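Hey, weird one. I pasted the D-amino-acid oxidase sequence into the form twice and got a warning about non-standard characters only the second time. First submission, copied straight from the form history:
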Amino acid sequence: MRVLIKGAGVAGLTSAHELVARGAEVMVSDPSPGFASAASWYAGGMLAPWCERESAEEAVLTRGIGAADWWEAVLPAGSVHRNGTLVVAPPRDAAELKRFASRTSGFRWIGAEEIGALEPALAGRFRQALFFAEEAHLDPRLALSTLRQGLEAQGVVFSGGPIDEGRFDLTIDCTGAAQIGDIEGLRGVRGEMLYLQTEEVALSRPVRLLHPRIPLYIVPRSGGLFMCGATMIESDDAGPMTARSLMEILNGAYTLHPAFAEARLVETGTGVRPAYADNLPRVSRHESTITVNGLYRHGFLLSPALAEEVAALALGQPCGRPLPNPPPQGGGAKQPLRSPAIFDHRARCKGRDRGGGNAAEEAPPPCGEGLGRGEIRRVWRGMRKGFSERKCPMKFTINGEEHELPATTVADLLLLLEYEGEWLATAVNGELVHGADRARHRLSESDRIEILSPMQGG
Ligand SMILES: Cc1cc2nc3c(=O)[nH]c(=O)nc-3n(C[C@H](O)[C@H](O)[C@H](O)COP(=O)(O)OP(=O)(O)OC[C@H]3O[C@@H](n4cnc5c(N)ncnc54)[C@H](O)[C@@H]3O)c2cc1C
């Protein structure tokens, strides 16, 4: 079978790898030289299914657990670092650590002594941390380059020019954010990051620094390099990093360790994460095109599982994994077909199974329980419009009234409550939150929120 893969980001290259391994004749097209326009190039490379569960669905954990094994089998020895993730918070943000712990699993609490033993550079800086021992990380740039070289060595041709798609039996579209506007519901989540270089700090694993508004992670690379990231902004603008984001990330790095103040700032960059409203990826087939998209902040974590799914769908082979959903029935020829092994949308909330196959997608999510019917519908409509991360509800006091809503940021909250328009003022716990800050102002349990909007016709 001759297969054209469009897009040489992590989705395209992992799919190519799985297809070549099953005997397909593969060509990869990408108009961009190098990887600079791929979101994959800017990734942290964290294979962190347990940490990601803080804001992601159960499927991200269950499908991401095997990622480190897959990458280890494909990349040269030593490329995948399986030494865990450390999650810390300054004493004033200790509540954040508890909140993170309450939403995740697969960690143990550790004290100052063990923090110092794991990361001597952080000795004496934090009293408590969560240690996710099973998590791993890799260098995404090395991984992408190695995958590409391996494919070329097996005869895969990479092309940047126009291609006659008619020559191929099948096209796999892995063009990520380039499909925003063409695929209904696909949106961009802008992620700004930077690289610092210093010999003054040594870390051996990703460290996440929690903060109610501006969480940060730092992933060590070789050569004294540290990838620091990343913003989560509801936008498909891939333009240069803003001064505000730069200052916030640098502030975070400085809080983690003051020696980062003397580090060289060697690169800033922006990637646009392609995401659907539920922040879960999709593999779908329409005639002779398979589309893989919506990898959101989990491209390296989930692409191994997705690539296996793509290869099975392309070649009509079993995926080798349990099929959580029955294949859709009676889809006409024009109807895009969801692959049977697609992520289980019934698992939207921890430990729940509403059943009902596709119907569950249209139903209000179980996390909305506890709200009135009208509110559930409103919340669900807000979710379908797409807000940054879906959560189980937290309690807030909004304009003096108690509410329980699954909002992560002030922007989420406005979306859920269907506030629209420019003429709004928002404050959290008595502090004004400007319009430009709402998408990144993270909310905590029991926050007091004031929303002022003009009276209609007043
Ligand atoms: C700052 C940041 C940090 C991240 N950290 C992590 C992390 O730690 N762990 C993790 O798992 N994920 C992480 N992610 C998420 C991950 O990077 C994305 O999920 C992933 O890159 C999406 O991969 P993709 O292949 O779908 O898209 P992309 O990587 O964007 O690749 C799409 C490719 O398609 C090409 N293309 C566009 N149009 C065409 C066309 N018409 N024909 C052919 N080719 C075309 C583009 O040039 C591009 O190369 C992070 C993302 C960002 C931005």
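That's the output from the first submission. The warning seems to come from a hidden character in my clipboard, not from the data itself. The longest helix spans residues 299-315.
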